[in-house]
Amino acid sequence: MRQPLAGNKAIMGWLQYGPHATVLFADYGAFSMKIKTLASVALIALLAACQSAPVTGRNQLILLSDGEAAQMGADAFKQISADLPESRDRRLRALVERVGGDVASVSSLAGLDWQFKLFEDDTPNAFALPGGFIGVHTGLFKVATTDAQLAAVLGHEVGHVIARHSAESVSRQVMLGTGLQAVTQASGASDGTAQLLATAATLGIILPFGRNQESEADRIGLDLMARAGYDPRAAVQVWENMEAEGGGTLEFLSTHPNPGRRAREISAVLPEVMPIYERSGRR
């Protein structure tokens, strides 16, 4: 349980966002009335925007439309493409496009105009943006040494897209920012207290949620690569290779499961996806 935040006397409690939109406060003055009104509005928005993630069925809060998210993804991908040089290795570029196309073709968004681009960067990493924009670093081939291992990574990234994780993250940040602003304005809280609220919200909401998204993308990716005919056991090998490599950027921030844990979680799911792979005709 979170400890109450010390500061302005009107803010003696804690604020928890989630499926039940629970708001608890110890001071029941005008401040409490304002918060109750805001919480009611937020609850309506939460219910209206509630969706379910593919494969896992996890409840999601998504406020952005597909079109809005896709435009954000296109803008971000354009900026990244301007900052990072595209690889000149035609063989690897063709490999990324082929394997990525295989995985995307069995997803629920098979008709999307998927773009798989290989960037010249030595870090073992890949990323996904809404709208079907997938970027791969050349350094990824240090840990993804086979087509199936590459399919595991690209399946994970495609999983982020079809589960709308970027739109979900933005939606939660919007709700978080709106709530913090409302609390600050309604209470007349000092900058220091507002900062404490922001810190508590970040640690209590954003970090665990990032881990859930990553694990979910792993699970969706296993399903996709199996359907596309790539051996899901290769996903375990990727994370074992990543652990041996010493880790890469982004995937090893505190918001993400470590490679060893991911390998174990993937191994536990293999009995569920191997039959899909066996029926796929393999590659």
How would you describe this structure to a colleague?
The protein is mainly alpha-helical and 283 residues long. It is 58% helix and 9% strand. Helix 3 crosses helix 4 (147-162) and helix 5 (165-187) packs antiparallel against helix 6 (191-227). The longest helix has 37 residues, at 191-227. The protein contains eight helices and seven strands; from the N terminus they run E-E-H-E-E-H-H-E-E-E-H-H-H-H-H. A hairpin with a 7-residue loop joins strand 1 and strand 2 (23-25). The protein has helices at residues 30-48, 66-83, 90-105, 147-162, 165-187, 191-227, 233-245, 259-279; strands at residues 13-15, 23-25, 50-52, 59-61, 115-119, 126-129, 133-137. Strands 5-7-6 form a three-stranded mixed β-sheet. Strands 1-2 form a two-stranded antiparallel sheet. A two-stranded antiparallel ribbon has the order 3-4. The protein has a domain at 73-165 and 211-279. Residues 1-41, 196-209 and 248-254 have low confidence and may be disordered.
